[in-house]
Amino acid sequence: MPKGPQTAFQQYGKFLNALGRSELPLAIRGTMNELAFSSRKRLSEVEMPKKFTLRNKFENKQSLHAHKCPNTFDIDKMVSSMGQLRVVKFQKGPKRTSDLFKQEHGGTVRARPGSEMLRTPTKAARTSKSFSKPVARRNRPTGSTDWKDLREIERELGILRPRSAGRGTRAMSLRDRIRRAHMLMIREQDKLGKGPYMLPLLNNPKALGVFRVVRNKPVLIHTLEKKTRKLKKKETVKPAYEHVVKQTGDIFAKQAQHRIDRAARRTLGLR
After folding, report:
1. DSSP assignment of 164-211, as one string?
2. With contact defined as beta carbons under 8 Å apart, do 172 and 161 qualify?
3. How far is 7 from 267, CA to CA, in rounded Å?
4. Among candidate residues 110, 203, 116, 191, the one with its CA nearest the CA of residue 148
5. Three-class SS state of 148
6. Poorest-confidence range of 70-84, 95-109, 179-193?
7. Residue 180 half-sphere exposure, CB side, CA atoms within 13 Å?
């Protein structure tokens, strides 16, 4: 038998009450969550590959986050977010990072903790000698890596020590002494070890380089300089969420339709 008008009216009132109390707040919460996840996806798959050379999946996959709104019906307390985690788990444990913040706003690159030198790997240091690849494991400095610093063994070898010229001869220039030092390091590989060694650069004696002997020739794999480097601003987070936020109306309409349909089926007996 059909239900009386009073019962139908009560059901409709219950339906409207459910919309205001829970369903529309849930639609708003769902919209904010989808905005966060879609922005993170846009950041990872579009903006970062467009601006950076990504040599692994860490920066644009593992270090990014999208946080949901808390489980509340209070719209004023609804907050969702996306971006790079402040503390990221590396192979040796969790570490604080601000890489993406510096890229987004511009900043200063300094030497790594525990080092006085700003290290820049060359193409020769990378896997397959490709700029798009990460630094090969054998060319990465670690706590156990002993880069042979010629300054430390200079007392034994006397390579860079200025030498007085004899009568009728001219003292060796700094560049000649550096060139001679490379030749001696190549000759003394068995004595000094097969690992990388440090020497000043020929074209810039004030800067150090890390070299590896390859086919009896010195190959530069890292440059080391006692200075900082300025990073130009490369925005990726901002264009990611600005692109997605334009879809807010469509996302909310979809979320609201879903919540209204669900409330209607539950309170009005619709299928």
Report:
1. ---TT--PPPHHHHHHHHHHHHHHTHHHH-SS-EEEE-SS-TTSEEEE
2. no
3. 12
4. 191
5. strand
6. 179-193
7. 13
Which of 210, 198, 188, 61 is CA-nearest to residue 140?
210
What is the C-alpha separation between 187 and 97, in angstroms, rounded?
A: 42
**By C-alpha distance, which of 185, 180, 188, 189 is closest to 198?**
185
Please, what is the angle between helix 5-18 and helix 248-267, to 10°? Answer: 140
Reduced to 3 states (helix: H, G, I; strand: E, B; else coil), residue 1 is: coil
Question: How do residues 30-86 score in pLDDT, each as one tens digit?
Answer: 999 999 999 999 999 999 999 998 888 888 888 999 999 999 989 899 999 999 888
Residues 57 and 135: beta-carbon distance below 8 Å: no
**Is 210 strand, coil or helix?**
strand
In the DSSP assignment, the letter for residue 141 is -
Burial class (CB in 10 A: 0-12, 13-18, 19+), 2: exposed
User: Are 191 and 143 in contact, with CB atoms under 8 Å apart?
Assistant: no
Cα gap 208→226, rounded to integer Å: 9
**CB of 179 closer than 8 Å to CB of 194:** no
Dump pLDDT digits (tens) for 230-250: 888 999 999 999 999 999 999
The span from the first CA to the last CA of the chain, in angstroms, equals: 18
In angstroms, the Cα distances linking 269 to 5, 11, 14, 23, 61 are 15, 9, 12, 16, 44
Q: What pTM was computed for the model?
A: 0.71
Asked if the model's pLDDT at residue 162 lies above 70, the reply is no
Please tell me the predicted confidence (pLDDT) of residue 252: 93
Alpha carbon distance 239, 43 (integer Å): 8
Q: How many Cβ atoms are within 10 Å of 173's Cβ, its own excluded?
A: 10
The whole-number pLDDT of residue 184 equals: 79
Return d(Cα 243, Cα 106) in angstroms, integer: 21
